[in-house]
Amino acid sequence: MMESNVNEINNNNIILQQQPAMASSIDIDNQQQQQPSNKWHILEGLKNGHQPSDKKTIEHKPPLFTGYILKRRKRPLKGWHKRYFHLDSGILSYAKNINDWQKRKLHGSTDIGLSVISCKPSSRRIDIDSDSGIFHLKAKKEDYNQWVHALRTHRLARQHEIAFGSSTGNDNHAALASITEDSINSSFCLQQNRLKSPTTSSGQSLIQKCDKLSSQSSLLLHNQSNLNVGKIQEKLIKLSSLLKFIETAPANASACVPCIGDLETYKYTKKSSKLLRFHLHRSKNKNKSKDHDQNGQPKFSLQQQSFLSISHPSLTDDDLTTAAAAATTACDNQSITTMTKNVAMKDFVQLANEINNNFRQLLKSIQDINYNEKQDDDSEERSKSIRISFDKSTVHHDADDDGDGGDEDVFTSSEQQQQQSPYHRTYSMDETSVMSISEYHDAEDNVGFLGQPNRSSDDYNSSSSSASSSSIEDEDDESIITDFSEDSHKQNNCCLKSEQLLAVKRRTRLPSVEPTNDISLWSLLRKNIGKDLSKISMPVTINEPLNLLQRLCEELEYCELLDMAAAMIDDPCQRMLMMAAFAISSYSSSYYRVGHKPFNPLLGETYECVRDDKGFRFIGEQVSHHPPISACHADSKNYVFWQDMRVKTKFWGKSMEIIPIGTVNVVLRPSKSHYKWNKITTCVHNLFKGERYVDIYGELTITEMGNGLNDQLTCKITFDKASYWSGSQNEIHGMVMNSRGQIIERIRGRWNESVYAGSRCIWRAGTMPDNYEAYYGFTRFAIELNELIDNEKPWLPPTDTRFRTDQRALEEGDVQRAETIKSELEQQQRERRKMQETNGETHLPLWFSKQLNGNKNDEATDIYTFNNQYWDSRANHFDGIDFVRLW
Ligand SMILES: CC(C)CCC[C@@H](C)[C@H]1CC[C@H]2[C@@H]3CC=C4C[C@@H](O)CC[C@]4(C)[C@H]3CC[C@]12C
């Protein structure tokens, strides 16, 4: 039922007709109880026929409900803690305990009318996917049913309130009076904030200002308790109440009538709107005309309806009808409401002005405090003697590097390092910041060189054969390091000494713009709440024309940072900073890439990427199918990089969490230091409606081993969850610690923009190419990854992704062909798997070997290491290799 309705919406067939009243909320409870208890299911939202007069169905003011629930800690895998939750008027807020709640020390709060709630009775889990994040909750046995019931009734009442407003003007006043402090945090504000609607009217900008102010105030309340902010808080509560009232009351006489007409507009815009065809990007003013009427006034009523319908997929097209009908009825009370609303708006403006002035004063005091603190910091920093010994302007490397590196330990001084460096070009960047090299290419013609495919195989043999002989038998990290150090001079030759260097002009745009996507993501995902999605076959239009192996290679976009780190032989701390910047930079491309997912590589698929201009060669292979695991290895004169990764994907109702499991390894050849770090979680919010955005959170810890010194450094980087409270997004902060736990450097920044160590910018993301929104949000480097260069073709194995036909068809914009081929290829893969199973065979990767971790049940911790045979074999045209035919 739900599905068909959603489909109808997606097919633009909104049926404007009344439906008979649905079951009461108690019936819905019963329905819910009939669901299998060991499965996740979603609490149904406002249903057909839930009309304002339908008093039986909607409890207008469900009773306050409070109590303790276990809440999963924000950092993944860190257990549960007991928290006090308070559910009033559809707003769920929580604090550490009841005392804190009474003192208003809230940890968070959300409007559950705007959330998707899913439950799993067998484990008493309740997950709330809200605009302020996902709450994973677990109730006590005796409380579970009551919580579910309370959440359901509050949610219905709240949705009802949002859709229809309170039934009379008086009710609105009552609601206004009864709004408690926590409604300050209501995601009503959050929603405004997230949607970042264009500010065309003064009212709208005030609303945004109010959002900002209330978040700032909460920060101040937490951090500057000695400042007199009580009064401001009071005013903010009032302001927030007014805002809520203004928002929920019908906008004006003309806004009432077009509600139904707007549904038509909605149908139309749905097809054309970039937002709704799941092509998402961060531009803020795109849908200006759609969100505003001719006079530039925001279409509040329409926004609310369409928001409800998509954000709450459980609301059907009929609900829209009902909402529209209710809005029309509300016109009868028009004059009363409009009058009250005008008064409220005046009050709002006055109050906002007062608060503005108050904040100015506060801001000034804080600036004074900050200024004093900064003075202290600066003097401390000046006194620090450790400085980057290497000067960015000295990274001028000559192209005539013969790379034969006769000496064992060639990297003993930074001067020598410069001579040995792989660069065939000169950096001309400001400060130490690193931009995408691809971007640099754009500016300077012919600066990139591709290793000639028919280079002498000796170049490779010398490096990899020796490595392979030792690394296969070496199991522990230490021995791997020894291995690298021993052949480091040989590895220096790896892909840089080419007899004939060929200037390659790489492409700067994809062959075709991304296709429009009108599939119903919701109908695909709704049955899979809480599940790992790797097994679901998705339509090809959800994909971008890159696969996961290529995305792993994309993590090397800012590999210059590794070269810089390698150059800092004598400065472990600065080296660690560069490693940190590199680890952070690998997430930056995700910012514009929320609209699509990469292709899942087929089992045995490989991807190589030889980049002489960047100084590395990369090889990746899909080594396991269930679970899907990708392994990769890259080496350069300065470093070796490898990782294996499996991705767990969880869908929570409105958002999707992507949890990569695996460890990234980098060995810097000159200092022989080995760095390891974990991966962190990516979450795509607003999958169905609103501005889809990606949040990356968790703690990334880089450890250094084997630098030959006793004092081994650790760098802890925290990727903060986007927070309404602090108004922050994409922020990271971290510190480098010595083995005694003393902090020796701090970093901060944003994973999508830049990283600073003190006031020094150590990395900055490259600018995006023109018109990137129409091209999957690809960076310049990403555009280059799937390009099949003629000279390379004869050297690639048949399993190389660049020969994959469905991906190529998608890249060329031929969606239908891509779709047909994709399902054929997946079908063939299933058949191969079946065959293997019946023959009792197991798949063995060609280029990586599995090291069992000893725990049979935990495949996630199996490690795949490079067997060092790929490049040798490639030089011999993969002679004797029996490739699976993948396409
Ligand atoms: C339904 C669709 C549209 C949702 C889109 C999901 C996208 C955003 C997901 C699917 C697979 C994900 C990627 C899987 C693996 C990695 C490698 C990791 O080291 C960095 C994050 C990164 C690169 C993820 C980024 C986000 C990602 C691309």
TrEMBL record:
Keywords: Cell membrane, Coiled coil, Cytoplasm, Endoplasmic reticulum, Lipid transport, Lipid-binding, Membrane, Phosphoprotein, Transport. Residues 459-471 have a biased composition (Low complexity). It is found in: Cell membrane; Cytoplasm, Cytosol; Endoplasmic reticulum membrane. GO terms for biological process: bile acid biosynthetic process. Residues 381-399 have a biased composition (Basic and acidic residues). Its main location: membrane. One of its GO terms (molecular function) is sterol transfer activity. Residues 411-427 have a biased composition (Polar residues). PANTHER family: OXYSTEROL-BINDING PROTEIN HOMOLOG 3, OXYSTEROL-BINDING PROTEIN-RELATED. This is Oxysterol-binding protein. It comes from Dermatophagoides farinae. The lineage of its organism: Eukaryota, Metazoa, Ecdysozoa, Arthropoda, Chelicerata.
